[in-house]
Amino acid sequence: MKRRSLLFPLSQQPHSTSKSQRGHTDYVSPEFAMRTEAGLEPWSPSGNDVWDFAKAAHLLRRCMVGPTPAEIRQAVQDGLETTLNKLFTSFEPSVSDIQEIAGQEPQIRPASADAATVQAWQTLVNKHKDMLRRWRAKTIALSPVSLQEKLITFWSNHFTSELQVVNFAQYMYTQELLIRTYMFGNFHDFTYQVTIDPAMLIYLDGRKNFVIGKRNQINENYARELMELFTCGVYDWEGKPNYSEDDVAQAARGLSGWDIKPSDKGALYSSLTSQFNALRWDGGDKTLMGKTGKWKANDIVDIVFSERTNSIAKYICVKLYREFVYDIPDKTIVEQMAQTFIDSKWNIRTVIEQLLRSKHFFALENIGAKHKSPVEFFIGAVRGLGLKNIVDFDFSRVGRQTQLLIGMMDSQGQTLFDPPNVKGWEGGRTWTSTSTLPQRQKWIMDIMDGKIRSGAGAQQQTVFVFDAIAFAKQFSAPNDLKKLSQEMAEFLLNVPPSDAEFTVLFDTILDGGKDYEWNIDDVAQRPDARIRKFIKAAAELAKFQLT
Length: 547
What we know:
- This protein has helices at residues 3-7, 53-63, 69-78, 80-87, 115-141, 148-156, 163-166, 169-182, 187-195, 198-203, 221-230, 245-255, 297-307, 309-324, 331-343, 348-356, 359-362, 374-384, 404-411, 436-448, 468-472, 481-492, 499-510, 527-539; strands spanning 210-212, 215-217, 258-262, 270-276, 286-288, 291-293, 453-454, 461-462.
- It is mainly alpha-helical.
- The chain has three domains: 53-366, no CATH class; 374-413 and 434-465, no CATH class; 467-547, no CATH class.
- It has a two-stranded antiparallel ribbon.
- Strand 5 and strand 6 form a beta hairpin.
């Protein structure tokens, strides 16, 4: 792939201007492209088209972050069906590092108003935010073969909430539990539960949306985003509006009355659950999308889903297509996915599984065609290269020098739990640019050279430690230099290198030596240094940025 092609941005796909003022711009209809004639019919081995390392790697790379060589080889051995079953199996991550957060009610303000107490409280709030981000990164890095962490990232970028706005890590952790519950399940029910989720009630001002007597405090923020970003989108594919400004106002009235339940600990704390208070609800008639009644929040969600069924199905399936296949969706495929979504009564697993087992998903044009996000690049390197001594994962240490992995992702524009606005991260080719690419490449070079250090004085230590010999011995023939080079290249790059690229890579690991002299256990052959040089050369290729 040409570097110019790698860096050239796709046309922007923003949304309409929103009264929430959280980063919206003018709406443009989705862009479509047909890149292959392969459809959604199930893929099965045929002739030379077999289940092999390339196909297993493609499936795992799209469904998880940084699959290892061993995980890919196991998928080859297991076959497609068993691998899919593994991917759709959820798991319970350890919360031992975040006992201060998990299931704990936040203290929303200190009991004392003196400056020292307030400062200590704010320091604790910030500590909890940092802990949550580090825990999320560690959970992804230590995850088994499962779609879970990829889907949690996807759905948290769809039903967005910003930690800096919500402020308390406890609410964001609770929202993640909700996402984990519904990530494979029913999208209609998922949407309703997000609507009354405490973090969302804070983020999009649902708790400020109420009517008490003559006091009208109707807030339209969530009502707008429910339709604009979370379900049907501003327009359908024919350019007709999916809702009006009056629909937003009427929906907001129906959504009123929800707030966070008071804590049993008293006014200084806040519970982790929400509650409906009829005294804060606008009980009058509302007319939404032609339906009139004394609607409440569940009715609003029901009406949007029943009246904008096709638009919702297409809008969500476009997003799923972009996540798992390619940045520019195939219109025909999305339409078929949307029908499956509707027929399954909004079952998320059904539509994703149809896509992942299809000939379209495994078409050559769609393999290795997506840009790695910062999470995929940096945490993917931790998993895929087997890096050790990740200082971010040591919760006994605190301070800026203990958030090096988090810091790299931040510098690339992906701060965990903090998307840029309610629209979320745009992703795709926006992840790779003339500013982000050099940072990514230097990070890999520094790891290979053992240059990344943490701490000061006698406490300073090398972090992101890479064991080159152990890495190479994962492959089938570590003492056959050409085969080892081919297998390492196949693993490190999104697609096999061209003849010219492989020549460069092989000359790099030869390093002036003879391939027949190579022995990975012979220190005289400098295997450690030569393997590191090989990886550095691979990291300079555009294909290293793709997945």
